[in-house]
Write a structure and sequence with these properties.
Strand content: 15-25%
CATH topology of the largest domain: Glycosyltransferase
Number of helices: 15
Helix content: 25-40%
Shape: elongated
Distance between the termini: 58 Å
CATH architecture of the largest domain: Alpha/alpha barrel
Structural class: alpha+beta
Radius of gyration: 25 Å
Largest sheet: 15 strands, antiparallel
């Protein structure tokens, strides 16, 4: 049985990733890409679906674990009756093929240990042909091949590969798993110790670029490292999570494949990297974005593959029982075909944020922006599926309209600041029309709150982004009212749900936990409402939900006191970074976005409000 979601640690090489449990078992590994079929899939089934456990023969969870400071190198230690054993896990920054390196190290006394590996290709469905040659392993099935080399002899028994030995203080034994295309020659052996030194040095050099020096630096750096690990290095796109089908509701059907790149993450990702000095990553994400959205704006998708692929068919791996029986296990994501008007605003806000963060201008960005706005002028008033990808009827979601407003607002600012030719007067009329409509139809004056959609009584945590986006200042009574209404109706165990699944028409049975990004947004909104002490208290409670390695899933379920949803979740870590940066500034924004709050206040004053 897989461990609790928060019991896992992440290792990765910025092209693929693995999850390592407290018991020393790698229960999830997809190679050669994040979205490739898993060769270890016990996370969504049993050990017969593939896993690799390495630890003391006595078994059990590690006594303690940590990442080596400011790296993605994971260390776990077990104290036994005879001594202490350490396992060091990492994936070296890739040269040509992916490697998983595991080093067993004696710390005290002597400890017997064991390696138990079950390779299963195709998400646990394919038993490879395995040969043991000179104490090493070679496994092949179709296009996939895996070589496992070790200082110990490996032997096969019962469709598994085993090794055992003893380490004393100061001794080391290494294991290296290497994937390669089966039709290519076997890669050369990797020097585990040299790879460890190079990997640590790479991460230290990268973290050295971080400019954030606030009170939450350790948490911010850990989140930035996690986000960097989720960037697909060849293209610059960032996956929402390295996993699929970890449930939002344990035992339920709200299980989705998140190993793709969502446009909704674009603006927040850019802000997180740009605000902390990692401009190379922000620039790479922008270039991925421009490649992915190039073409007819009517064909814009809400998510794409790692290289910008458009076709992401959704199917079910019905041989996998799912995490703790949460079925179905979905591969691919049909939400790619939904209409979500907010993504146009998110894309344009991302490009605008990049300009204000000081990134070099992109010659294609403005031309793409013009075409997108031409389309949005004709379609912003239509209903859509909204930010949360509901599988119910289309509606006029307030968040979607606010992001449509933001699209025109940001482009107007860009045109004026840069002297670019554009129909600014017409855009201003559209922007003001959207603003007036949202305030008239998306606001419930009786309850003093913005609602999820026009004419609806339902509330939505996404409306907390209204002051963050500069639609209204945090001092506006309607913003304060929305904050209070959302808190009173959507709080679950002290943290926010996205919306009330018991009454909302989202096309799915069951419920879900508190959506962590929404609680970070609440902290942002409280800070913008000049309630910084409350914002700080909430932020620090959110930090307390991280596991001992500083990782967050998508949600937290207060019913079971557990993290739920895909893990680790980029959206949660992006929100953590942006909230930490915002709390360090009176405006609640990164320094290069300070003028958003001023502009919203000035606009409200001009309207006589």
């Amino acid at each position: 049985m897989a461990g609790r979601i928060e019991d896992y640690g992440l290792i990765g090489d910025m092209e693929s990733a693995a999850l390592v449990g407290r018991d020393g078992s790698i229960d999830w590994l997809c190679v050669p890409r994040f979205d490739s079929a898993a060769i270890f899939a016990a996370l969504l089934g049993t050990q017969e679906h593939g896993h690799w456990r390495l630890g003391p023969t006595s078994g059990g969870p590690a006594t303690r674990r940590r990442y080596r400071p400011e790296t993605l190198v994971l260390e776990q230690e077990w104290d036994t009756d005879t001594g202490t054993l350490r396992v060091i896990d990492f994936m070296p920054v890739r040269d040509e093929v992916p490697n998983v390196v595991r080093i067993v190290e004696g710390v005290r006394g002597e400890v017997w240990f064991r390696s138990e590996m079950r390779l299963r290709f195709g998400y646990g469905a394919v038993l490879p042909w395995v040969k043991h040659v000179d104490g090493h392993l070679r496994a092949v099935a179709g296009p996939d091949a895996v070589v496992v080399r070790s200082d110990l002899d490996l032997h096969g028994e019962g469709n598994a590969t085993w090794a055992a030995g003893v380490v004393r203080a100061g001794e080391r034994v290494s294991f290296v798993l290497t994937w390669h295309p089966s039709y290519r020659p076997e890669p050369e052996n990797l020097d585990a110790d040299a790879a460890l030194r190079a990997t640590e040095a790479w991460w230290h050099d990268w973290v050295a670029n971080c400019t954030y020096q606030g009170p939450y630096r350790d948490a911010v750096v850990r989140s930035l490292i996690t986000l960097r690990a989720l960037i697909y290095e060849p293209t610059g796109g960032i996956v929402a999570a390295p996993t699929t089908s970890l449930p939002e509701d344990i035992g339920g059907v709200r299980n989705w494949d998140y190993r793709f790149c969502w446009l909704r993450d674009a603006s927040l990702t850019l802000r997180a990297f740009a605000a902390t000095g990692h401009t190379e990553e922000a620039a790479a994400w922008r270039e991925w974005l421009l490649r992915a959205i190039a073409g007819d704006p009517a064909d814009l998708q809400i998510l794409y593959g790692l290289a910008g692929e458009r076709r992401l068919p959704e199917w079910q791996a019905d041989w996998l029982p799912g995490y703790e029986g949460s079925a179905p296990v979905r591969i691919g994501n049909a939400a790619a075909n939904q209409l979500q008007l907010d993504v146009y605003g998110e894309v344009i806000d991302a490009l605008w944020s990049a300009r204000h963060a000081g990134l070099d201008p992109s010659p294609d960005a403005w031309n793409i922006e013009l075409v997108m706005l031409d389309w949005l002028e004709q379609h912003w008033a239509e209903p859509d599926e909204g930010l949360w990808e509901v599988r119910g009827p289309r509606r006029h979601f307030v968040h979607s309209k606010v992001l449509a407003w933001a699209a025109f607002d940001r482009s107007i600012r860009t045109a004026r600041r840069s002297g670019l030719h554009a129909p600014v007067h017409r855009w201003e009329q559209t922007r003001d029309t959207i603003h007036a409509q949202v305030c008239a139809k998306g606001y419930d004056a009786r309850r003093n709150t913005f609602t999820q959609s026009y004419g609806s009584a339902e509330l939505d945590a996404a409306t907390l982004l209204i002051p963050v986006l500069g639609f209204l200042p945090g001092t506006d009574p309607r913003v304060a009212g929305t904050v209070e209404a959302v808190r009173s109706q959507l709080l679950a165990g002290g943290f926010l749900r996205r919306y009330d699944t018991s009454s909302a028409e989202d096309g799915l049975p069951g419920g879900e936990g508190a959506f962590l990004a929404c609680s970070f947004w609440l902290a942002d909104a409280l800070h913008l409402c000049r309630r910084t002490a409350e914002a700080t208290d909430l932020f620090e409670r959110l930090l307390g939900l991280r596991n001992d390695l500083g990782l967050l899933a998508e949600e937290f379920d207060p019913r079971y006191d557990r993290q739920v949803g895909n893990f680790p979740q980029a959206f949660s870590h992006i929100a953590l970074v942006n909230t930490a940066v915002g709390l360090a500034h009176p405006s609640g924004q990164a320094p290069f976005l300070d003028h958003l709050e001023r502009a919203a206040t000035e606009r409200l004053a001009a309207q006589g409000g």
